[in-house]
Amino acid sequence: VASVAEPSETMGRASRKLSTRGPLKPKEGLNAPHVESEVEQAEFEMRIRRFVLELMQPTIKRATHLENAQQELHNVVAKNDSKLNDLAKMALKVEQQVLLVESFRDELGTWDTER
Question: What does pTM read for this prediction?
Answer without folding.
Answer: 0.48
